[in-house]
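Lay summary. Proteins are chains of building blocks that fold into shapes, and those shapes determine what they do. In this project we predict the shape from the chain. Here is one chain we studied, written as its sequence of building blocks.
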Amino acid sequence: MAQLTVPKLDARVRLFQDEEGKLLAFADLVIDGSFIITGIRVMMGEPKDDKPGGPFIAFPSRKGTGTHEGKYFDIAHPITAEAFQEARRTVLEAYRKARAGSA
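And here is the predicted shape, written in a compact code that computers can read:
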């Protein structure tokens, strides 16, 4: 079986601040220069248990209907843990650069 690799990822970030301060930015993730996922949100996480709070990413989702009305379902997301970690790293790095450039 061939080894799967994560394609080249680039992120574009637009800073945003909501009244509650939870939504920090919107991001687009460009995959290998040929496919884009728009509507990724950079959110501020609350500290829980032994984990500190901090920025995290949320992929675009859609609210369910009918018996799934209270749930949200991802529209697009990485399949492997490696792809998720690389997407997370890429988007959060672009977010930090955008924040540093706006200061």
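What the prediction tells us: The chain has one helix and six strands.
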